Amino acid sequence: MENGIENFLVEREAILRLGVFATVFIVMLLWELVAPRRVLTVSKLQRWSSNLALLLLNSIVLRLLFPAAAVGIAYSVGEMNWGLFNLLSLPAWFEVVAAVLLLDLAIYLQHLLMHRVPLLWRLHRVHHADLDIDLTTGSRFHTLEIVFSMLLKWLVILLLGPALLAVLVFEILLNGMAMFNHANVRLPRGIDRALRYGLVTPDMHRVHHSILRRETNSNYGFNLSLWDRFFRTYIDQPEKGHDAMTIGIPEFRDARQVDRLPGMLALPFVEKS
User: Fold this and answer.
1) CA triple 215-218-222, angle to 5 deg
2) Cross-strand bridge partners of residue 210
3) Which residue in 66, 121, 217, 243 has a CA-CA distance of 20 to 30 Å to 152?
C-alpha cells in the first residue's frame, strides 16, 4: 500500500507542484492588484516577462539535467534504505515533520552561503538585482544557482533519507512560500506580527532585498522565521521603512541590464562586486 502511494506521488509530482504553483500565483497576483504594499518603480511588463522567461528556462534545464528531481531522488534513497531516517525507527508523522524542518534548515544555510561565499554571491546577486520586489522575484534565480541548489538538495536528501511525502510537502511549501514572501502585498501589522512567530512574511523578507548591505545580509529564511531568530540574522524592519527603502544592489541600477533576460544571465560574469 505504501509503495503504491509513493509511486502515485512520484508519477503525479510535477502535476501536483504545477497545480499548487498556479493556484498560489493567481492568489498572490490578485492580492498584489487589490492591496499593493509599495509603488513599483520599473515597468511591470518588462520585469515580469524577463523573470518568468528565466523561470521557464530554469524549469527546462532542471528537467533535462535532473529528470528525477528531488522527489525522485527521495524515492530512490528510500528504496535503498540510505540516510539517517532509514536507520531510525520513528513514527511516520514525526519523520515527516522532522524532515521538513531539517530541509528548511538546509535551505536557510544554503542561502547564507550564497551571501557569504563570493563566487556563490555572483550567482545569487541575479536574484537581488531586481529593482522591484513582487511575486515573480521569488522565482528569479540564475540558472547556475538553480543547478547548484538542486545538487545540494540531492546531497541533503542522500544524507537524511527523508520520506518521499516529506520532500514533496517541502518542495510545495518552498515554491508557495517563495511567492508569498516576495509578494508586494499589504498585511495588517497585527497579522504580520503574529505570523512572524512562525513564518516568513512579505514585510520580513522585503528587508532582505534592501540596498543596504546590513539589511541584505539578514532574514535569510524562506519558510520558517525561527532560523533567523536562532542564528541572530533577524532584522525586524528596514531602516528607512518599507515605503522609502530602496530595493536592489548598489552597483546594478540599470534596468536594461538587470531586468532583461540576457543581462540577467550575464550578471554573474560582470566584473563588479
Assistant:
1) 125
2) 247
3) 217
**Set of cell numbers at residue 73:** 531522488
What single-letter amino acid sits at 70? Answer: A
Q: Which of 9-13, 141-145, 262-266 has the lowest mean pLDDT?
A: 9-13
For the stretch 73-130, pLDDT in tens is 888 898 888 999 988 888 989 999 999 999 999 999 999 999 999 999 999 999 999 9
The DSSP-derived string for 232-261 is T---SS-TTHHHHPPBSBTTB--HHHHSSH
Task: Look at residue 273 in the predicted model and tell me its pLDDT.
Answer: 47
Q: Which three cell numbers stand for residue 222?
A: 524562506
> Which one, of 255, 273, 221, lies nearest residue 130 by Cα?
255
pLDDT in tens, 18-73: 899 999 999 999 999 999 999 998 889 999 999 999 999 999 999 999 887 888 88
| Residue the block writes with cell 537524511 | 160
Domains contained in the chain, number: 1
Which residue is it, cell 566584473? 271
Residue range of the domain that includes 178: 2-269
